[in-house]
Design a protein that fits this description.
4-stranded mixed sheet; single chain; about 5% strand; 2 domains; about 60% helix; about 500 residues; disordered N terminus
Length: about 500
């Protein structure tokens, strides 16, 4: 299953891991050099901090993602409760796995040098800003599980030399699919077409017994893959809440979050979005496979997996760039093909230098950090100033309006209500009023010592006139402005008037 690693390979893996570590310091949002995480990534970090502090997922704190993103973030929070180092170490581990397994995959097709450089290029392209964003997202973590499965698929088609598929491979595939699906259900879309093509192959060649052995491996893998989530849900009596958050809420989100009024407009937005270049690379990989005349069953598997992923990821007619990160696995053939052509003409060191420069530019995080581009820095500076004020009364409850959970993370506080953010266009007030009403009720209950209000561009709080008016009147009567900034953002820290 895994090739024996000799001393030369050990050095290659050490080089690749070192490359992943160095590039991560300059490209990953949880890096201590950057400390820049987008709103979704901040939300996930907050989930982990809350679970590490004893809150129950979906019951005490809620996000419409699967339980495994909660668990991964919780591990990060346990490793470093007051910083992002824990998450950064988890990401370093994942990206090191990615580059090493891509290298192992490519050794089946190209010589060592080309496999090494192509692996570096794969990691560099996967760090692009449009799909990677700042990392620490369900999509960026899912690539690791995809890469492991891709290695097993390659091993089966090119090294196993039998029609029969090893049931242990299916067992591992099932676990990998569960890990992705239990972060976000559609992330498991890649494995369904693979299973269908494999089943057809086994039946065509009369391998019925092997089919049922693989079916048993699949079922056992699903049991193992689901076990941590089920055990957690039973232990904390939150199975129904977990189901709601992972499935029902996402169905609501999908039904109401379309970026388009119809398929035609969605396709236009999808095709002309910057991140569509990943899809172009993936389709180009199909052409490379046909050109090189590889195993026809492998080509059929590859193409159907790509088509299946496209369908699963775009069924909601949404145009989120990070979705395209899940197509990265399909870019490996064309990246290797292009790197092979370049290495035949240009010195290896120059190619590596170009990969590093491209990665830093395409990732944009270092550039944004140096130039202070975007509104993040306004929020971060405001949160740091608020933290100094709030430390005078560290035991007071805190509530943050809107979508910026960064304020909880920077001030080292935790939400005390289930719906700690407003969940965007997919779960807006008209279809999901619970979040807005829960926050509004908490504000007007007087239970919060501090309230951080992120005003919208039109000066409203939630965009619901009746609720906004009532809250503003309440804040004026019972709270005082302890900090206010209008530089780039319109955010106010309100402190209860009876605080010392």
């Amino acid at each position: 299953m895994f090739n024996k690693i000799n001393n030369n390979n050990k050095m290659e893996y050490a080089i690749l891991v070192a490359f992943a570590v160095v590039m991560s310091f300059f490209c990953v949002g949880t890096s201590p050099l950057l400390d820049y995480m987008d709103p979704d990534s901040q939300n996930f970090r907050l989930l982990g901090r809350a679970l590490a502090a004893g809150q129950v997922a979906y019951v005490d704190i809620f996000d419409h993602k699967g339980p495994y993103i909660y668990f991964m973030e919780c591990i990060g929070a346990i490793l470093s409760p007051h910083s992002e180092w824990g998450l950064f170490l988890i990401e370093l581990f994942c990206y090191s796995i990615n580059i090493c397994f891509v290298y192992k995959i490519l050794l089946n097709f190209v010589e060592n040098k080309k496999a090494r450089i192509s692996s570096m290029a794969f990691l560099g392209i996967s760090f692009n800003f449009f799909t990677f964003v700042t990392g620490n997202l369900t999509d960026s973590y899912s690539v690791t599980f995809q890469v492991i499965s891709a290695f097993l698929i390659i091993d089966y088609y090119f090294n196993y030399n039998k029609i029969e598929h090893p049931p242990i491979y299916m067992f591992i595939h099932a676990i990998m699919a569960c890990c992705c699906g239990l972060m976000r259900p559609v992330n498991a879309g890649m494995w369904i077409p693979f299973g269908i093509v494999l089943a057809i192959r086994l039946f065509i060649y009369g391998k019925v017994k092997n089919f049922f052995c693989n079916l048993i491996g699949l079922l056992l893998g699903i049991v193992v893959g689901f076990a941590p989530a089920v055990i957690y849900g039973v232990r904390h009596s939150c199975i129904s809440d977990m189901w709601y958050g992972t499935v029902i809420a996402n169905m609501q989100y999908t039904a109401n979050a379309s970026d388009a009024r119809g398929v035609a407009i969605f396709l236009k937005n999808f095709i002309f979005a910057p991140e569509f270049f990943i899809v172009i690379l993936a389709v180009g990989s199909c052409a490379v496979l046909f050109k090189e005349k590889y195993n026809r069953w492998f080509i059929a598997t590859f193409c159907t997996m790509l088509v299946g992923s496209l369908i699963f990821m775009n069924v909601s007619l949404r145009n989120d760039g990070q979705y395209n990160q899940l197509y990265m696995i399909f870019t490996i053939p064309i990246i290797a093909f292009c790197c092979g052509i370049v290495l035949d003409k240009i010195n290896e060191r120059i190619v590596i230098a170009c990969i590093v420069c491209f990665t830093l530019i395409a990732n944009m995080q270092l550039i944004k950090q140096i130039t202070k581009f975007g509104v993040f820095h306004y929020h971060y500076d405001a949160a740091c100033a608020m933290k100094e004020i709030m430390q005078k009364n560290p035991d007071e409850k805190v509530l943050v309006t809107g979508t910026q959970s960064l304020y909880y993370n920077v001030t080292d506080t935790l939400p005390h209500i289930r719906y700690f953010i407003i969940y965007g266009q997919g779960l807006h007030y008209e279809v999901f009023p619970d979040a807005t009403l829960m926050q509004a009720n908490s504000i007007m209950s007087g239970e919060n010592g501090y309230i951080i209000v992120n005003y919208l561009n039109d000066g409203s709080i939630y965009g619901v006139q009746e609720i906004d008016t009532e809250i503003k009147n309440y804040l004026e009567e019972y709270y005082t402005e302890a900090y206010k900034t209008s530089e780039g953002i319109n955010t106010v820290l309100y402190a209860a008037k009876d605080l010392k």
